[in-house]
Design a protein that fits this description.
9% strand; alpha/beta; 7 helices; binds iron/sulfur cluster; 251 residues
């Protein structure tokens, strides 16, 4: 299904993302996923943290195509509960292509041999443990899917259903869903929760940089708590590389 665009943006990819966003802004997340896979099938991956709310998007994707590539950033600093949950949830949903992305050995050996870089430079730590592994893994793909939602933080209030960045389209099918929507979907499909949710962790990343939060706080308030950092860097737009500068697709 082609998406017509009258966007004034000078980038064809940005105009394409704006057209998708305009067409799907109020659509059900399942329909957004269907549209994304219909256009980019074989060239699209879903990036999941297997965190607090990951089961909903993973379940929807598995219902449409259980062989979709699912990229999990295995930073080497996860809670043991997250690694267990990644295995059990993937198995239960029947996902057949979950890929564990690990930091490059040389980056760890040179920059973080004692695994405590997070104490002195969280940006550098996230770069070698998240940003670079994901950049490498996404190279063959023209589009990717995230689980980000507007309600998660003030910084995400204007999150679009589709964005352009690094030469790819990024879909956020859950952008306009509320916490109540997610909880209702999880209950309807009896999806297992990440075990740390029950003990006060509504957003879960690496153990050194994740804390439980108090009632009424942003769900991401426990991420890098006490610092200015609010994102790991994988959602910060960087220039496209020649290998991934593609509009792609026919919608
Ligand atoms: S979240 Fe913390 S431990 Fe994980 S990669 Fe970033 S700085 Fe390092």
């Amino acid at each position: 299904m082609p998406f017509e665009s009258d966007a004034l943006d000078s980038s064809p990819l940005a105009a394409h993302a704006a057209a998708i966003d305009a067409a799907l802004r109020t659509a059900h997340p399942r329909d957004i996923l269907r549209a994304a896979l219909a256009e980019y099938g074989g060239r699209i991956a879903l990036v999941s943290s297997f965190g607090a709310e990951s089961a909903v998007l993973l379940h929807m994707a598995a219902q449409i195509d259980p062989s979709i590539p699912v990229l999990f950033l295995d930073t080497g600093q996860h809670f043991g509960q997250t690694l267990d949950y990644r295995k059990t949830l993937a198995g239960r949903l029947g996902l057949t292509d979950v890929r564990d992305l690990r930091p490059q050995y040389q980056d760890i050996a040179v920059q973080d041999p004692s695994a405590n870089l997070y104490k002195t430079d969280t940006d550098a730590c996230c770069t070698i443990r998240k940003v670079l592994p994901l950049d490498r893994a996404l190279q063959p793909f023209h589009a990717w899917i995230t689980g980000r939602k507007r309600f998660q933080a003030a910084s995400r209030l204007r999150l679009a259903v589709a964005e352009a960045g690094e030469g790819k389209i990024k879909f956020n099918p859950l952008a306009n869903w509320s916490k109540a929507d997610l909880d209702a979907y999880a209950a309807e499909h009896a999806l297992p929760a990440h075990p740390l949710v029950a003990v006060g962790y509504p957003s879960i990343g690496c153990w050194p940089c994740t804390q439980a939060v108090d009632d009424g706080e942003d769900v991401r308030a426990g991420r890098w708590a006490g610092s200015e950092k609010i994102e790991c860097g994988i959602h910060v737009t960087r220039p496209p590389t020649p290998s991934n500068d593609a509009v792609g697709g026919d919608i």
